[in-house]
Amino acid sequence: MARITWRGHSIQELLSILRLRWSYMKHCWHSLTFNAHMNSSYASDVCLTPIFWFVDNYTHCLGPFFVVGVAALTTSVVSIAYWIGLPFWWAKSQLMTYFLLVVGNWLLLNVVFHYIMAVITPAGHPPEGVSLVEAVSMCGKCIAPKPPRTHHCSICNRCVLKMDHHCPWLNNCVGYGNHRYFFLYMTYTTLGCLFLILFGLEIGHKYLWLEHGENWTEIEPLEGQPVKFNLSGHIIPVTHPHEYDEFMLPPAVHNLPTPIVDTDAASPGRRRALWFMAFTNVAVVLALGSLSIWHAKLITRGETSVEAHINEAERKRHLQQQRIYINPYNFGTKKNWKLFLGLVRGRSFWRTVLLPSWHKPEGTGLSFHTVNDAPFEDEWP
Question: Domain range for residue 317?
């Protein structure tokens, strides 16, 4: 029996040589990249370093374009709602139209107000050149004292009081000074898109489904001839128009009403605008709706996005030590929401939340009460 060889080596010997060379290359790679702190997290950070560099250096340049994009998108959605939705509901019910105008413009007022305020209101920064008695650590990048709940923003290149995150859609950091504006903007935008979806379903069904289905175009002409059935059930072709009637009566004449077709409503431009509205509103509800729910959970727990990761790591560390970690800024659901929305010092919910309000957050952002030193209920804050 013939033995297969290559350059005097058998198949088994070749496989053994390949395994040895692969093992040698792995050892070389590990020796060149050896690091006692190497793990999957560190490796992923190294791979993502170019992306982090691009975000840190160019996000502030793209921020103004994001702001203009939000303004243009909001304007286009509102314009289409007035162009198509207002005449539709006015013809359907004037009383309902008044109701929709009041609710819709109330939502629009809150969306515009809170977005503008979130963009122009600074998140808050520690004062420079002064001694901060509230400082709890030093920033390794600013080389300056850091008050509690303060974190460094690599995009703004400075520390931010009670930082949550940097939002490119605002071209601004979200923190102590504008967190409430940011959250209410997301909430009212989600409610506004749900409002347009709910009261636009009938419009979409009429213009995108019914009229689009009726305005079909015959591509090929129909071919064939009329037929009739005799008493035995056989099909007999009709060659004379009066063969439909055995008594040679003249054909019947029907005076049917001519349907009125709204050519403007059935125009391709209007249908494209409605499809644009549908995709935009659904996408915004999914994106901002989920983000609003996430931030609502954080507010309920009395923490920011940055603190959520820190607290999670602390909970795991304390759990390994068989201890329980307690967030020092979690005063309970009710009080957390009152502090976040500013429902203190006699402010009411309808005036502070349901209507635009310029009130600032309590305190200076340099120090915060904790569960260990919180004042009594009648002295709060």
Answer: 61-121+174-212+269-380
> Does residue 156 form part of some domain?
no
What the block records as the tokens of 218 is: 């015959």
pLDDT tens track for 96-122: 999 999 999 999 999 999 999 999 999
Handedness of CA 162, 164, 166, 171 (dihedral sign): negative
Strands 137-138 and 145-146 turn out to be: antiparallel
**Bridge pairing between strands 235-237 and 227-229:** antiparallel
Helix 268-301 with 179-204: angle, nearest 10 deg: 140
Active site annotation includes 167:
yes
Tokens of 380: 């709060």
Residue 132, in any domain of the structure: no
Distance of alpha carbon 240 from the chain centroid: 67
d(CA 104, CA 82) in angstroms, rounded, equals 10
- The active-site residue, picked from 153, 167, 173, 193, is 167
Quote the pLDDT of residue 1.
46
pTM of the model: 0.75
Q: Contact 381/331 with Cβ under 8 angstroms?
A: no
Domain presence at residue 186? yes
User: Scanning the structure block, which residue is given the tokens 């395994």?
Assistant: 19
Mean pLDDT of 14-36: 78
Residue 229 in domain: no
Q: Work out how many domains the chain is built from and give that number.
A: 1
How far apart are the C-alpha atoms of 237 and 235, rounded to whole Å? 7
Structure token pair of residue 221: 């002409």
Report d(CA 316, CA 7) in Å as an integer: 59
